[in-house]
Amino acid sequence: MAAPSRTSWADVADAEPAPPAPVPAAAPATSNGPARADRSSYVPPHLRNRSSNAPPVSSAPPPRAAPGLLGRPTGGVGGRFGGGGAPPRRWDREPNPFGDEEEVPAEPVPFDEHQNTGINFEAYEDIPVETSGREVPPAVGTFAEIDLGAALNDNIRRCKYVRPTPVQRHAIPISLAGRDLMACAQTGSGKTAAFCFPIISGIMRGPPMQRSQRGGSRTACPLALILSPTRELSMQIHEEARKFSYQTGVRVVVAYGGAPITQQLRDLERGVDILVATPGRLVDLLERARVSLQSIRYLALDEADRMLDMGFEPQVRRIVEQMDMPPRGVRQTLLFSATFPGEIQAATTPYLTRMHARP
Ligand SMILES: Nc1ncnc2c1ncn2[C@@H]1O[C@H](COP(=O)(O)OP(=O)(O)OP(=O)(O)O)[C@@H](O)[C@H]1O
Fold first, then answer.
1. Residue 116 in contact with ligand 1 by CB distance below 6 A
2. How many domains is the chain partitioned into structurally?
3. The domain that contains 90 carries what CATH number?
4. Contact between 289 and 336 (Cβ < 8 Å)
5. What is the ipTM of this complex?
6. Is the peptide bond prior to 97 cis by the omega test (within 30 degrees of 0)?
């Protein structure tokens, strides 16, 4: 699994499938993660060849890291929508996040036919990835190797994603195996899909939700929580997650501060499976008892380093440790960050199952 150590590292928890609970207390990981670098100087690989005077990929600044992983299994895999079969009728009329593009390409679109972003993910191929942990599920080379379900696969084709990016190649199989994960990957490397795909797939295959959780209740009980530091990032994740979950029956709602809460409350009342939220607004919703975390099966923290840099640690701690969220070992935790210096590891590893120091 491991690759050159020059640009990558990983911290890991127990990779051995363990009973959901109880689990031993986590030992903090070591603090020798990569040093924080100036973000503004970083050029994601997919943008490096955009202008004629852009540096060649080989001379561009290397990414700082790659996924690191950990483990614990989650509960059973049932078959809520038959692994991607027909979703319930109530979702048939959901707005199409792909606009007018109704058709699902029969085959993955070759890279040079991409119409959306022109992103060159071929540039990521040379990125070394290091994983650690015990019995780490192997990385995949294609989306076809992963059983994400038919509806999600259709959306991947609609998104014109041909191949998984490195962080997706490693993180998706690990997450699908029910393991906790700490992944260090740079902005623009495809992290959103790396945590959304397993979450959406897991919800689709999970046991049917109780009626009260499908809307009509004053207190929304999402199954997955994606915490992100800013309104902009939350909106971006929401937009992507809606595309990935189109016609899967999985409903995504976003809640962020700096905007009226009324519409967000209405959206929550209609039912929510995946809640994308900023910490401050979520605390507000929890205090109003408009959201309960009691049903959370997946917790994803995106840009964990930025979240803590921005002073959200007390809110994050409160959300994860002091409200009604199921403990680690019961929920699955996915941490994503561009850097994982010591203080971030110290703050976040208690959220993970069976951490141990990196070798
Ligand atoms: N496998 C893929 N193939 C092609 N495009 C992809 C793939 N995965 C993600 N993308 C696209 O790459 C872009 C960057 O991905 P994404 O926003 O998920 O990165 P990120 O690491 O989450 O960045 P940020 O930290 O800014 O949120 C998006 O336009 C996304 O649609």
1. no
2. 1
3. 3.40.50.300
4. no
5. 0.95
6. no
